[in-house]
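Protocol step 4 of 5: obtain the predicted structure for the target chain.
Materials: sequence only (see below). No template structures provided, no constraints applied. The aim of this step is simply to have a reference model before the mutagenesis design in step 5. Sequence pasted as it appears in the construct record:
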Amino acid sequence: MQLQTNLPPRGTVALLTERETQILYLMANEKCSMEIAESLDIKESTVRSHRKNLYIKLDVTKCAGAVRKGFEFGYLKFG
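Step 4 output (structure tokens):
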């Protein structure tokens, strides 16, 4: 039995939601989960859930990897 997900295949560009993109941007600006939650007026547990989904979609294990892939895939830009 194969587990099915709505995630893109490995090696392809991940499709992020608008909220995930917002959180990724704030992560790139060195905000912790608590600061992100306050900034977006959501619960910290919700931020942690979005971060977990980001790590899965971007196939990374840490914040730095997520930010790097955010730039690679064009979700984040310099300037």
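Step 4 remarks: DSSP finds four helices and no strands in the chain. Residues 1-7 have pLDDT under 50 and may be disordered.
Proceed to step 5.
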